[in-house]
Amino acid sequence: MNKPIDAPLQLPPNAREVGRSRPHESAAAHVAGRAPYTDDLPELAGTLHAALGLSPLAHGLIQSLDLAPLRALPGVVDVFSAGAITGANDCGPLVHDDPILAGEAGATLRYLGQPVFVVVARSRDAARRAAARAKDVIRAEPRPAVLDAPAAHALGQYVVPPMHLNRGNARQAIDNAPHRLTTQFVVGGQEQFYLEGQIAYAMPSEQGGIKVWCSTQHPSEMQHLVAHATGRAAHAVQVEGRRMGGGFGGKESQSALFACVAAVAADRLQRPVKLRLDRDDDFMVTGRRHGFHFEIEAGHDDEGRILGAEVTMISNAGHSADLSAPVMTRALCHFDNAYWLPHVALHGYSARTNTQSNTAFRGFGGPQGAIAIEHLLDAVARRVGRDALDVRRVNFYGPEADRLTTPYGQPVTDNLVQPLVAQLEASSHYRARREAITRFNASSPVLKKGLALTPVKFGISFNVVHLNQAGALVHIYTDGSVLVNHGGTEMGQGLNTKVAQVVAHELGIPFDRVRVSATDTQKVANTSATAASTGSDLNGKAAQDASRQLRERLAAVAAQHWQGEASAVRFDAGQVSLGGQQMGFAELVNLAYLARVQLWSDGFYATPGLSWDRNTLQGRPFYYFAYGAAVAEVIVDTLSGEWKLLRADLLHDAGRSLNPALDIGQVEGAFIQGMGWLTMEELVWHPQSGALLTHAPSTYKIPTANDAPQVFRTALFDAPAAVDSIHRSKAVGEPPLLLGFAAFFAIRDAVAAAGDDGADVPLNAPATPEAILRAVQAVQSSPRVPRPAAA
Amino acid sequence: MSTRPIRFVHRGHVVDVRDVPATRSLLDWLREDAHCTGTKEGCAEGDCGACTVVLGAADGQGGLQLRTVNACIQFLPTVDGKAVFAVEDLSPAAGPLHPVQQAMFDCHGSQCGFCTPGFVMSLWACREQHLAAGTRPSRVQLADALAGNLCRCTGYRPILDAGERMFDDGQTRLATAPVLQALQTLAADEPLRDFNGFWAPRTLAEFAALRADRPEARVLAGATDIGLWVNKQLRVLPELIYSGNVAELQAITIDKGVLEIGAAASLEAAWAALAAQWPQLQELWLRFASPPVRHAGTLGGNVANGSPIGDSPPVLMALDAQIVLQRGDVQRQLPLPHFYTGYMQNQLQPGEFVRALRVPLPKAWTQMRAYKISKRFDSDISALCAGLALDLDDGVVRGARLAFGGMAATVKRARATEAALVGHPWDENTLAAASAALASDFQPMTDLRASAAYRLQVAQNLLRRFWYETRADQPLPAQAVSVYARETI
Question: In b/e form, how buried is each residue of B182-215, taking b as 16+ CB within 10 angstroms?
């Protein structure tokens, strides 16, 4: 099934299309405003617009829905609630606990913002105006709401059973360690803030079919959920999407509710129906990155080596399971980050609360798991009085072979953390800057600088084995132009560009002869979400497989034409040659067509060698690891808690990059996004009503251009992947989000400089000015923590 | 009813628009009526910049003034008589890219591409302005020009690179002559009178008469708040009397030691005038909303809105500003603190409007600073904002005007704190007494931006920062007390 890829099939010498810094395939259209998104498609005649009526309560029991008055409002065509859904009222991706609409009388309202009914009207404005009367038409009895995860944990209220990942004997290792440290840490959630909000546009098609244009990372799942909701077979539902205006995980499972509502409405009315959410509704309805609470107990030695750790992780899952289980799995599998931990006991609780259902967001629990150990190492470093980098370094995986197995039993066979960190330490002048900062802080009474270097190791593959598969379809038309379709979705990451590069490379044709078409469930079936950073790994391989089959067929035609060996046929720069003979690619294609050779091919890929036991949390869930490290320097105002990122140096492992420009774009963008998560992006719910108060960009602040550091240096670490990944590249979507840790820990470092050496810095994330000032006051008022005596 | 259609220049032609509600947004008109879908809706509240377009108007000196605005909160009748430039204007469908677009392409400035047209338009306006002035922006100035554009993908570095590279080809420029000619034609149109309840008088006399006759109508200035009433609260608005076409209301003058800023002067023009007198206000100017919002919004609107977290009242109060109100042809003048009577309430009588703000010019003996605290540097609503001014005589405080936003139901002066300062030497003991007094001036609240405790603590700490900066003995430069201080702007 998996063909050996880098066993060199006559790779053309001069045409390494892969590895070139091509602009994004849509870049010219983007900058000209001519790249259509779902809402830009010309509207079909008769299109109606839907809006959602939302629960006004965080928790309650529906007594009645009085929707009749809404039907009489101007422009309103239809108003319906859960009872109108002819199929299953469920859009849960894994667990069937996620109603599309809350339900009828007697049903539970689970969070403030939960969709309860749908208004369909002739204009979007009319639909919104009617839907806005939700408070007047939903009669419900309030119930006590549980709004935060620790409270839900105390009640034993979870969306999935608790998970435990153990290695060795953590309790004993902690008890026997020279020093023990107990610490808590909290990290907030994060809104995806894709610039294009959720949208679905459904059209009834012939003989009971439905077509849905949808901004989604997971067309196949949309197809299946729409089929279930409307009581159809999957083959009657087509889902198509050319591009998203950002996804970041927020359109992996949670585009489903909108796809289902639009489809149900279109089905009921036999009219095209568009559901485009207002940004505020998008915030109120959909979930985001899980916030986590951590209780950590660790034993360590004088140098800061972690000898044993026991960690309780409590995530805020929200009202339903959604993807909370795999998010927690990934969190547990990333507590180790880049560190050898001989004895660990990790406990994961996905707490059910009366808030939006939290979901995928770039990193998918990995960042939450990894920041917990970074917090621990930072605290240990202050305790033992060593530079945090030195403490991190003594804990790195390897180099000895007996320090190279993860807590979940996967050997780390491609460890790059030492050389990568060493290179960054040197290129960023970490040590010299550390000294300069110490001098600055000694002479600066109000402002303090801080510096941190944090590493990343991130596991690549879906943590669920069967999801690691992909398909592609490559067509060669008789003029020699090539059309590619694959199961991945384009959300800005450049997947289509990379796949087109792979295809152009295989066929030895210029890049502009390859066009990638919209993702379409009628072309490649049963696709996995474009998620877990696997887009290029999976779809690139599938497209390569299809292209190779085509090249082999074409080579056979050429060989017959020239009376030579197929294996000696060369494809390069749009020319095909054998010995001294040559013809254009299109000419050969035409010959093949006349010879009745199939000029299109499917391709398939399944990642080899994966295994995972979801009960014991042991196995080999990841094909390989991606590495990276960042150094950040910040300045903090000890009077206000304001801070600024002065400089960032990033070094990231993208294997042998398929496209360095795109990969650097991913690395930088992820760093800023990670920094935003840990600093300025704060989610606040009203403590009584449960209303999300930060429900728009007016109140929820993502970084702007002035938040990017003036000195921003990014480089890719030069090392091909150790495994047979697509051209030995590595996935780059999620791992660099963890580079943003450096900014957070640099702030901690600066705060520490405001107090005595060794003082603990009780700073949680997000490090808003208020949180920073509180930490400054804590370090200024806390007496120096006694340092463990040197051995 | 409407006497004539809304008329403006779009894609080189004068377009006539009838049969739209007065609150139809420019964005919806572009996307749904003109079928120009390059401009995107990201938030519908002027905070993300995906809908950034550029408005052109005659600058009064024979040139064309280009200003970015958020199309999502720009009511269509407010572009009457102007030129609208959107991303489709920059390059022909099959033709070469404009230098701004080419630079974004070359620098990998787009990923998902959804915010991109808005960035392109902000960069385009920035480039046209700098080419006209014969200047080049620094990288920091580029970031400031992009403060109203959110990108979630790139981390901004490539976009700033593009902002530098777009000047490589300095030849391609907007041909302003035909636009100015078209605008001149439009200038001959009658003012819009009752375009579906929208009135756009051009003289102060007509404005004042309309206002007096229609006390139930709403004065509409930049719509940077009222636009949200429509988009988010779905409110049905009363008649609107637009102040944006009244030249007298936009005038900024200096006379007899007083800077007078017309109520309808844009925030950008007003802050430029203030920062010309008080260079220390430059940071607050840059942090006050985003460029598109400052271009649309007005100083009078910010003051009249009366939000306790508006950033101009603390500064204006510290500067001892007077507010001028007018009804019919009768004017009255109040010290600004007297204008506010409660949360979002003020002294305006039915039919009355804000005419201007009058600010006495700086005195040599006055020390003045303004500080803003928020989670993000750019375009964020303040947790608190302080305008602090002391009149000093040989190190002794003779007068104090300390005004805070975000600390009470209105922006207000810290009277007890001021009392603790006046008559005392500006030293650490006085600072301590003033700091203690601050706690009796304010009982702030806890909300999504900050806790009560933080607000009070930081208000006190900002007083300390002010002291560090203005004390007689070894004052500290801004760079030693603020992480945002810039050596040069």
Answer: bbeebeeeebbeebbbbbbbbebebbbebbbebe
Are A117 and A67 in contact by the 8 Å Cβ rule? The answer is yes
Contacts with B255 (C-beta within 8 Å, 6 or more apart), sequence order: none
CB A543 within 8 A of CB A603: yes
Phi then psi dihedrals of residue B70, to 5 deg: -90, 110
CB–CB contact B153 A774 (8 Å):
no
Burial (Cβ within 10 Å: 0-12, 13-18, ≥19) of residue A512: exposed
Nearest to A24 among B101, B111, B232 (CB): B111
Residue keyed to tokens 């200003």: B67
Joined tokens for residue B319: 């500067």
- Model confidence band, residue A297 (pLDDT cutoffs 50, 70, 90): very high
Please list the alpha-helical segments (H only) found in A513-659.
535, 541-562, 585-594
Instruction: Tell if the CB–CB gap between B153 and A665 is shorter than 8 Å.
Output: yes
Q: What is the pLDDT of residues A635-645, one digit of tens each?
A: 999 999 999 99
**Is A11 a residue whose pLDDT tops 60?**
no
Q: How far is CA B457 from CA A76, B315, B407, B444, in A?
A: 52, 20, 11, 11
Contacting B residues, span 124-143, partner chain A, CB-CB under 8 Å:
139-140, 142-143
Contacting residues for A426 by C-beta, under 8 A, at least 6 apart: none
Whether A27 and B468 lie within 8 Å, measured CB to CB: no
The answer to whether B290 and B122 are in contact (CB under 8 A) is no
Is A56 a residue whose pLDDT tops 60?
yes
d(CA A211, nearest CA chain B) in Å? 22
Give contacts of B 232-271 with A, CB under 8 A. 232, 234
DSSP assignment string, B193-252:
--BTTEE--SSHHHHHHHHHH-TTSEEESS-TTHHHHHHTT-PPP--EEE-TT-HHHH-E
Gap between the Cα atoms of B326 and A769, Å rounded = 42
pLDDT at site A785: 56
| Cis omega (within 30 of 0) for bond into B178 | no
Q: What's the DSSP call for residue B138?
A: -
How far lies A541's CA from each of A491, A499, A662, A718, B285, in Å?
19, 9, 18, 21, 52
Which regions in chain B score pLDDT beneath 50?
A: 488-489
Q: Which residues of A does the annotation mark as catalytic?
A: 734
- Give the residue among A529, A735, A532, A545 at the shortest CA–CA distance from A628: A735
Among the listed residues B288, B282, B192, the one whose alpha carbon sits nearest the alpha carbon of residue B240:
B192
Query: For chain A, what is the mean pLDDT?
Result: 96
- How many contacts does A have with B, using Cβ atoms within 8 A? 274
Q: Confirm if A22 and B105 have CB atoms less than 8 A apart.
A: no
Q: Pairing state of beta strands A237-241 and A209-214?
A: parallel
The stretch A763-779 carries a mean pLDDT of 98
A37: nearest CA in chain B?
A: B114
User: How far is CA A27 from its chain centroid?
Assistant: 22
List, as ranges, residues 372-401 from B with C-beta within 8 Å of A: 373-381, 383
Instruction: Give the closest residue to B260 by CA, choosing from B365, B211, B333.
Output: B333
Non-local (6+) Cβ contacts of A541 within 8 A are A5, A470, A603, A605, A725, A726
3 state SS of B264: coil
A354-406 per-position pLDDT tens digit: 999 999 999 999 999 999 999 999 999 999 999 999 999 999 999 999 999 99
Kind and range of the H or E run holding A142 = strand A138-142
**From CA A665, how far away is CA A673, in angstroms rounded?**
12
Residues B293 and B379 sit within 8 Å (Cβ to Cβ): yes
pLDDT in tens, A475-512: 999 999 999 999 999 999 999 999 999 999 999 999 99
**What's residue B1's pLDDT?**
53
